[in-house]
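Posting this for the archive.
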Amino acid sequence: MANQSSSSSYPILCASFNQDASLFVIGTREGFKVFDSNTGRLCYERAIGAFIVVEMLFTSSLLAIVGAGEQPSLSPRRLCLFNITTGTALRELNFLTSILAVRMNKERLIVILQDKTYVYDINKVKILDAIDTVPNPKGLCGFSPSLDGCFLALPASITKGSVLLYNVMELQSHCEIDAHRAPLAAIVLCSNGMYIATASEQGTIIRVHLVSDATKSYSFRRGTYPSTIFSLSFAPSKQIPDILVATSSSGSLHVFSLGFALNQRSRKSSTILGSIIPNSITDALDPAHRHVLHNAVTAGVKSNAVIRKVDKVADASTPGIAFCKNTALG
């Protein structure tokens, strides 16, 4: 999805996919619309004013919506839990400052403000915890919706790329990772909470850490020149995700293969040279891990891409290795 606000009479104020990327929603100055990701079919629309946050809960009828403040009833400090089946508001929550981001799963509701994050029981709409954070004016966060590995990732510094990992089900801090020297620009957790990927404001290196013990598992080079990373997304997977995609201000879509990197790593470790060169160095410099779709969107236009599914295709010429056929949505 690309925000064409500079050239459209009805600019997109927000856009997001649901937790399994089967649906996506856009918010405009007129209202919001929900679409089927596979067919592009319009599933639901509501023209009641401008919205800056619209988040779905899987394929349920529940939406979390936040107004843009253009009407008194649609304050950016008010979160509305909205039922699209009945067309009515189920509950409203008011805050002292503007809501920058909202995340949900079947047990938790996360509300991100500039310097505070609130965790709610979504079924009872009861506050469970309030987390003080560093200033986070962009509402940057990562969230894994799985109940078995439900983590929230937030910036932990304004001067370097540190990320705080918080266990949303256990309501306690898990760890802090120093991922980059420059401040963070993008964070994503894979759906099962196993891996976290980050990019800094420099935008040249994307790093992937294992959440359980905060160890760096992969480093991928996006490019040589600085660029703003607009989005990061893992492919859906019950175990280790095979693919990571990134969009940036360059207008290109970058696809990184975690599975290929893992296979290459095992090969390098069996050689004398490979055993003495750190994996983080070889991973970052090996272009075979990356595929680039140039001019995927207009350069400078904010974009968001996810991988809907991954089909593994066996290669008869290379026993034991499967290549991935990806269906990406953007």
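Residues 17 and 278 are 36 Å apart (CA to CA). The two ends are 4 Å apart (CA to CA).
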